[in-house]
Every structure is written in C-alpha cells, then in structure tokens.
C-alpha cells in the first residue's frame, strides 16, 4: 500500500481572493495522490512569549493542525522584498515554546507568487533563511518563483495556460519525492 503524506499548505496572503491563494489551490489540484494537501489558515495573534502560560486559542489550533502534518508547502506573496508578516508570525508561533517546535525536520517547499516579473524572489529567499533556523529542510530544486501571476489564474483559480499547469504538476511531483525521502516517521 502506498504511503499518503499529510501536507499543510500555508498561504501567506490573508485575502480570500488573492492570487497566492489561487496558486495554492492550483498546486493542491496538481498534487499527486501521495500528497493529501490541506490549507491551514494562519490568521493568528502576534507571537508574544508573555502569552505562553495561557496561549491564545489561535496558537493552540495552529500548533495542533501543524503537528499532524508530515510536510509543509508555503505559498507566499512578496511584501516589500520580503515575506508577509503573518507568514513570519506563523513560523514564530510554531517554533515555540522553545524545544517544542512543530517545524523540526518537517520537509518543506516554497512557491512565491507575484504579479511582478521576478516572481516574489525576495520573499522566497527571506522565508528560506527563516526556515533554516527552525530546521525545515526546504526542497532546493526545482525552485518556484511565479511571476506575472495575475495573468496565470482565472477568477475561479483555474490555471489559464498549459505551460503553467505542466510546471505546477512537475513541481508537486518533485515535492512528493522530497517528502517521501525526508518525512519524519516515513523515511
């Protein structure tokens, strides 16, 4: 029987109709059967260590949902040449309390999405730098910087062209291989 991996998909944009959310849904649709992908919402109170004695319910929910995932796929827009604050906050919330990080050893991948030409490269690199510290082994190849994204997805989130659909399918196949190689308890 083939192993099925639970993949948490984190969308760095809070807007329900965002291009990044549309791309995340397209990535989920392109995933091979070995990946059971689900979006984990990251609308969280800001991290503040003072609240660890009685963590906010949002933190508790997020940590519980993420702890059950075998891997994580990050879909991020670029804000001011870096990652959005809510996504960085999610990494921080999941990394605490110290010694109980939900990220440790969980294989990951990053897809940055932008209407601009460079495809959110600044966000992609900033997130990679953060994930090194929390020990998320991020897939190195293929890289995914999706530029001109406003023209690639329809209002319904459907991929508008065959080349983009082919790339997303290949990317998710590579991610499935990465997860199968590194997922804790499955390797």
Write a compact overview of the structure shown.
The protein is of the alpha/beta class and 187 residues long. It contains 5 helices and 5 strands; from the N terminus they run E-H-E-H-E-H-E-H-E-H. Strand 3 (71-76), helix 3 and strand 4 (108-113) form a beta-alpha-beta unit.
Describe this protein's structure:
This protein has 187 residues and is of the alpha/beta class. It has one domain: 3-Layer(aba) Sandwich (Rossmann fold). 36% of the residues lie in helices and 14% in strands. It is built from 5 helices and 5 strands, in the order βαβαβαβαβα. Strands 2-1-3-4-5 form a 5-stranded parallel beta sheet, with helices on both faces. β1, α1 and β2 form a beta-alpha-beta unit. α1 crosses α5. The two termini are 15 Å apart. The mean pLDDT is 94.
Annotation keywords:
single chain; alpha/beta; Rossmann fold; five-stranded parallel beta sheet; 5 helices; 5 strands; globular
What is the percent of helical residues?
A: 25-40%
Structural class of the secondary elements?
alpha/beta
Distance between the termini: 15 Å
The main β sheet shows up as: 5 strands, parallel
Indicate the CATH architecture: 3-Layer(aba) Sandwich
How many structural domains in the coordinates? 1
Going by CATH, the homologous superfamily would be Flavodoxin domain
What is the radius of gyration? 16 Å
**What is the beta-strand fraction?**
5-15%
Number of helices: 5
| Tally of strands | 5
Unreliable stretches covering 5 or more consecutive residues: none
């Amino acid at each position: 029987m083939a192993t099925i991996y639970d993949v948490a998909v984190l969308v760095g944009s809070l807007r329900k109709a965002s291009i990044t959310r549309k791309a995340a849904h397209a990535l989920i649709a392109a995933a091979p059967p070995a990946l059971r992908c689900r979006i984990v919402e990251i609308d969280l109170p800001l991290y503040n260590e003072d609240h660890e004695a009685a963590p906010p319910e949002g933190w508790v929910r997020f940590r519980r949902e993420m702890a059950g995932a075998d891997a994580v796929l990050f879909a991020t827009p670029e804000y001011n040449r870096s990652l959005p604050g809510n996504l960085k906050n999610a990494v921080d919330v999941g990394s605490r309390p110290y010694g109980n990080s939900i990220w440790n050893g969980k294989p990951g991948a990053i897809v940055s999405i932008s209407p601009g030409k460079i495809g959110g490269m600044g966000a992609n690199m900033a997130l990679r730098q953060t994930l090194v510290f929390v020990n998320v082994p991020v897939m190195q190849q293929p890289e995914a910087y999706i530029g001109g994204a406003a023209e690639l997805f329809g209002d319904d989130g459907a991929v508008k062209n065959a080349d983009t659909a082919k790339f997303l399918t290949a990317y998710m196949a590579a991610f499935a291989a990465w997860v199968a190689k590194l997922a804790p308890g499955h390797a």
